[in-house]
């Protein structure tokens, strides 16, 4: 009800993080390209398997002068997996404590990235080599205001060697996407969702370029082959974007959507990581890589703690679009006022100093139980995290954005979108 909305707006106004003048508008007017790294955990970055880099291209990107690489960025997904990641990236709202908001809340009013950017002349599109109905995307994308959704119906999926369990493998997917991407007017906001690196990570051995690991746990051992494939596909994308003349006027964002190896593989992961996978280690394995490449922007490894709800305000500020009046629960990662406490969907959280995992507090730096003197501070952070999650659930469960239109924002009419191929 409206008092809930008042609480929400009071929170977002008070939690608003001012743009950093050094980054605000650094990408003004540029195209935006999101490259979704399926099931990709950050431990893969700079990891060597039998002395060999698993992801050499992404490793090189951590050193690129115009790329910010965030090595303390965490997924915040729940049961909605990829759809939760998308929900957070597009709205800066958390997914739900159970189930997938994509499926149960597709009829809500949203003020998602595509609709905000439409007011600035952007055309938006999602590319995904799976059926458009998976995760109910072809319904909720209309509420987000995506102009186009190029699903499997737009691709040639006839050759079995090109296919993974959930759709077209990354290399043929990106290759076939080129003509569709070229058809978009600029500036565009384009998201490419891949499926090559997806559980259980089995791959046609004719396509692999790195050996499996040898823990004896099949999905852990295979994970490195599909991760390497993902890396090779991304390298090809960067090469093609340069050849297409898009590299110098586009922001390229790469993000991991959620973990790849679940908590059921502790023995094998202890061998891979060279340490026991305690609850603290497991929480710290929830890092996913975030790369933000902006032509002309000062890059470097950025240790700021953040999560997927922080990406939208960060992107909008890079594009020179202020977020103060939007209901967004994350904050700009480049802002000096960014809140580095990262809530997980289950109420746990990590931060540069204190972690809360399974109702226990830890010193983030040492992994040891928190000393008594910091308990008051820890409890304060826990209350803030619980409150942030509670507000997000109020917005999504109460569909509160129906009652709140930021000035200058044009609401979405989902009925005006049609994603079927012949409609294009
Ligand atoms: C399905 C693909 C994988 O289209 O995005 O979804 P996930 O299983 O990772 O949620
Ligand atoms: Mn996924």
TrEMBL record:
Give the bilayer topology.
Multi-pass membrane protein
Task: Report domain Sulfatase N-terminal positions.
Answer: 31-321
Its EC number(s): 2.7.8.-
Do the record's keywords include Transmembrane?
yes
Translocase among keywords: no
Pathway per its UniProt entry is: Cell wall biogenesis; lipoteichoic acid biosynthesis
Main subcellular localisation = membrane
Q: Which UniProt keywords apply?
A: Cell membrane, Membrane, Transferase, Transmembrane, Transmembrane helix
| Family note | Belongs to the LTA synthase family.
Q: What is this protein called?
A: LTA synthase family protein
- The organism named in the record is Sporosarcina koreensis
Covered residues, full protein: 223 to 646 of 651
């Amino acid at each position: 009800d409206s008092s809930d909305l008042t609480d929400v707006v009071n929170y977002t106004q008070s939690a608003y993080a001012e743009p950093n003048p050094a980054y605000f508008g650094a990408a003004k007017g540029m195209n935006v390209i999101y490259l979704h790294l399926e099931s990709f955990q950050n431990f893969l970055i700079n990891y060597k398997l039998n002395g060999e880099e698993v992801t050499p291209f992404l490793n090189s990107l951590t050193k690129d002068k115009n790329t910010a690489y965030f090595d303390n960025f965490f997924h915040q997904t729940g049961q909605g997996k990829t759809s939760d990641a998308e929900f957070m990236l597009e709205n800066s709202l958390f997914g739900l404590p159970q189930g997938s908001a994509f499926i149960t809340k597709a009829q809500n009013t949203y003020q998602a990235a595509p609709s905000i950017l439409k007011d600035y002349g952007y055309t938006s599109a999602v590319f995904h080599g799976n059926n458009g109905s998976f995760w109910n995307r072809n319904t909720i994308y209309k509420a987000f205001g995506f102009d186009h959704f190029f699903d499997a119906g737009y691709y040639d999926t006839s050759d079995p060697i090109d296919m993974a369990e959930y759709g077209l493998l990354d290399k043929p997917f990106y290759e076939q996407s080129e003509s569709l991407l070229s058809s978009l007017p600029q500036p565009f906001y384009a998201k490419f969702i891949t499926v090559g690196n997806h559980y259980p990570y089995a791959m046609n051995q004719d396509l692999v370029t790195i050996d499996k690991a040898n823990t004896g746990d099949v999905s852990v051992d295979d994970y490195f082959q599909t991760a390497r494939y993902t890396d090779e596909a991304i390298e090809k994308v960067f090469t093609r974007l340069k050849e297409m003349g898009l590299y110098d006027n586009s922001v390229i964002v790469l993000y991991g959507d959620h973990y790849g190896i679940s908590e059921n593989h502790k023995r094998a992961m202890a061998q891979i990581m060279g340490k026991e996978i305690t609850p603290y280690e497991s929480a710290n394995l929830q890092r996913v890589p975030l790369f933000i490449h902006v032509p002309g922007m000062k890059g470097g490894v950025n240790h700021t703690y953040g999560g997927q709800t922080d990406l939208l305000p960060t992107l909008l500020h890079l594009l020179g679009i202020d977020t103060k009046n939007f209901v967004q629960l994350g904050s700009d990662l480049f802002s000096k006022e960014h809140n580095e406490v990262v809530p997980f969907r289950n109420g746990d959280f990590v931060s540069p100093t204190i972690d809360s995992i399974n109702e226990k507090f830890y010193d983030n730096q040492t992994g040891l139980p928190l000393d008594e003197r910091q308990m008051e501070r820890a409890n304060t952070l826990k209350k803030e995290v619980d409150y942030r999650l509670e507000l997000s659930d109020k917005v999504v469960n109460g569909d509160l954005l129906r009652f709140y239109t930021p000035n200058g924002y044009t609401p979405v009419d989902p009925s005006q979108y049609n994603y079927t191929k012949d409609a294009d």
